[in-house]
Write a structure and sequence with these properties.
Elements (H helix, E strand, L loop, with lengths): L1 H4 L9 E16 L4 E17 L3 E5 L6 H8 L7 E6 L2 E2 L5 H8 L2 E4 L13 H11 L8 H11 L16 H13 L5 E5 L7 H18 L2 E6 L11 E6 L2 E7 H6 L4 H8 L6 H5 L31 H5 L5 E4 L2 E3 L15 H6 L1
Parallel strand pairs: 3-8, 3-9, 6-7, 7-8
Antiparallel strand pairs: 1-2, 1-4, 4-5, 9-10, 10-12, 11-12
Bound molecules: adenosine-5'-triphosphate (ATP), iron/sulfur cluster and magnesium ion.
Iron/sulfur cluster binds next to loops.
């Protein structure tokens, strides 16, 4: 996938989305009086910036808070704490009426292309709905606009009057994407956009997202549970574990020198096509299940499953710090970390 390899470095571009210390605690209540007895700490202090034209991949196992993060950014959920700043506007607690115009600029693509499409509506009605809801009149009428978008996402514009069930899974996800694009959004949050699709179709949809990004200058946050899906499309990748970001780095840096033990474990679960490279990689198996976010482990939340865990990991939370340029990690004993004290030329040669 060469197109993205030369995707320019966006580090100088304007920040479109800034997420700062974002939290979502879902209260757990008990009894008739619905007394609060605890909280599911689904997202617990997440911070990152996304620049214009950039793709941030958000990965982690089921339940780590990826979807919740996406829903908080698009304000489908109200944050418990922290801040969401979009194009310089603090939208964290903006009222529904004030946020409506911004909704056009921020759209979400969901995992299941079928359940998010109304089976009784034609493709024309589905893709055209955003125009009607927002009261937008296009110059040549909605039908022409919808047909243009269908063409853009690789669907036959003649199929305007067909129903979702007449399309394959991959085509339905294209319909979902077409609907999202109808309002020319600036930011798209795609929540597992290809997980429900056949592996053979996944690459096509990922390529489509990539082409659309170049053509329409879109900014993406793409949520996935494994690292392979977002490998080519992401400029930067954030790895989440139990409501927190444990590692955040440029794509190349993350894949070449993963530092957090959890990232290493996720990485070793990704098949490597090249047998020469496969040989020198140890396969790490993660022990046990993800603990409950209702009662997360103390300090480093990964300590119950980490093979490098020491006493300090249970008592002192490792902060997310930049250990290499544009490479942040939250771990007391990171892998692959540059050691400035010992990085003498002699050490480099003998390594
Ligand atoms: N409305 C809710 N009320 C209570 N708990 C919730 C709610 N929504 C999500 N959770 C919990 O918050 C945690 C994070 O959920 P979330 O859906 O964000 O995870 P995810 O990373 O998207 O997982 P998956 O890969 O399975 O989609 C989970 O423990 C989930 O059960
Ligand atoms: S801080 Fe400790 S437990 Fe956590 S990932 Fe690092 S080594 Fe493992
Ligand atoms: Mg999810």
């Amino acid at each position: 996938m060469t197109s993205h390899e030369d995707h320019d470095d966006r580090s100088g571009a304007e920040v479109l989305l800034s997420v700062q210390g974002l939290q979502k605690h879902f209260p757990v209540t008990k009894g008739l009086l619905r007394r609060q007895v605890g909280a599911v700490k689904a997202v617990d202090g997440v911070s990152f910036d996304v620049r214009k034209g950039e793709t941030l991949g958000l990965v982690g196992e089921s339940g780590c808070g990826k979807s919740t993060t996406g829903r908080l950014i698009t304000r489908l959920l109200e944050p418990t704490g922290g801040k969401v700043v979009f194009e310089g506007h603090d939208i964290t607690h903006m009222s529904a009426s004030r946020i409506r115009p911004l909704r056009r600029d921020m759209q979400m693509i969901f995992q299941d292309p079928y359940s998010s499409l109304n089976p009784r509506h034609t493709v024309g009605a589905i893709v055209g709905a955003p125009f009607r809801i927002q009261g937008i009149k296009t110059e040549q009428g909605t039908k022409k606009a919808v047909q243009d978008i269908l063409e853009l996402v690789g669907l036959n514009p003649e199929h305007y009057n067909r129903y979702p069930h007449e399309f394959s899974g991959g085509q339905r996800q294209r319909i979902g994407i077409a609907r999202t694009l109808a309002l020319k959004p600036k930011l798209i949050i795609a929540d597992e956009p290809v997980s429900a699709l056949d592996v053979s179709i996944q690459a096509q949809v990922v390529n489509l997202l990539e082409d659309l990004q170049n053509e329409l200058d879109l900014t993406y946050v793409i949520v996935a549970h494994d690292l392979s899906v977002i490998r080519h499309i992401s400029d930067r990748v954030a790895v989440m574990y139990l409501g927190k970001i444990v590692e955040l780095a440029d794509r190349k840096s993350l894949y070449d020198t993963p530092m957090h033990p959890y990232t290493n474990a996720l990485m070793s679960a990704v098949p490597i096509p090249d047998p020469a490279r496969r040989k020198d990689r140890e396969r790490i198996r993660l022990q046990g299940d993800v603990p409950s976010p209702l009662n997360p482990p103390s300090a480093c939340r990964f300590h119950t499953r980490c093979w490098k865990a020491q006493e300090v990991c249970k008592t002192v939370e490792p902060p997310l710090v930049e250990l290499a340029p544009r490479h942040q990690v939250a771990c007391h004993f990171p892998e692959n970390a540059p050691e400035p004290d010992r990085a003498t030329p002699a050490a480099t040669v003998s390594a």
